[in-house]
Amino acid sequence: MRALLVAAFALTVCAAVTAAPRDGLVAHYGLDGNAEDDGPYMLDGAEVGPVAYGPGVRCEAAVFDGVQSHIRVDGFIGVLQGFSAWVKPAAPITSVAGGGGLFGRSVSAPAAPYLHLGSLTGQVAGELVSILMPFQPQNDSIFYWTGADVGEDIDARWNHLALSWEPDAANYRLYVNGQDRGLARMHNMPRAISLDGVTIGGYGGSPSTFLAGSIDEVRFYERPLSGSEIAVEANLSDIVVAGGCD
């Protein structure tokens, strides 16, 4: 009995320490066979095109074809101050090959910001992760990180990506697999982006803007995330799911 109580206490402590933060959470898509949101506002998504589900980091993940499939959420997400997600591209994404959209705003262009992986604009040498604003001159990135900044390609395995807005710097900080990859380089006047609904897995009408691969555990926050909070979510050995996959 004592051993059972100790084990139960240890599991409770571990779950409390390693759970992804709920404070400031706007939406969370676990993508366990559906596009439901278990955040406070229940902003459920709708599958568009052939969205499938396969093995994920936690339970299942959404699988996108890189042509047209995505998940559309019609609801106000607000100003994006924190973001966290797992992504497993079908092929490696580098600054010269591969890529696609991780998320975009569901309201139609030209006012929609996108988070894109891989080279897209042609305006930045070595661009690997970028936030695009189509109404900016020549489709420039408003925030971007090069392959040298990131320090690694986004390989065809599970990768954790996170963004945190830093008000004092008026800039986003990028984390890849729990590692701080610094503040963005910028082309245009910096400001936190606003999301009036989102699309997960792609945006726009061109196949180059859709991601081929799997996405799991997508979270949007209305507050910045700390490095320690991001490190917990990025450490697979720390992940505890209370109640299994339900």
Quick recap of the structure?
The chain has 246 residues and is mainly β. It has 3 helices and 15 strands.
Would you mind describing this structure in some detail?
By secondary structure, the chain is mainly beta. It has a single domain (2-238), classed as Jelly Rolls, CATH 2.60.120. It contains three helices and 15 strands. Strands 1, 3, 4, 6, 11, 12, 13 and 15 form an eight-stranded antiparallel β-sheet that branches. The chain starts with a helix and ends in a 12-residue tail after the last helix. The relative contact order is 0.24.
Q: What is the CATH topology descriptor? A: Jelly Rolls
Q: What structural category characterises the helix and strand content?
A: mainly beta
Q: What is the correct CATH architecture?
A: Sandwich
**Spans with pLDDT under 50 lasting ≥5 residues?**
1-17, 238-244
Cα(first) to Cα(last) distance is 28 Å
The number of distinct helices, counting runs of at least 4 residues, comes to 3
Q: How many β-strands, per DSSP?
A: 15
Question: Could you give a short account of the major beta sheet?
Answer: 8 strands, antiparallel
Radius of gyration: 18 Å
Quick one: overall form?
globular
Question: How much beta, percentage-wise?
Answer: 35-45%
Top CATH class: Mainly Beta
Q: What's the helix-strand series?
A: HEEEEEEEEEEHEEEEEH
Please, how many domains? 1
Helix content: 10-25%
Mean pLDDT: 81
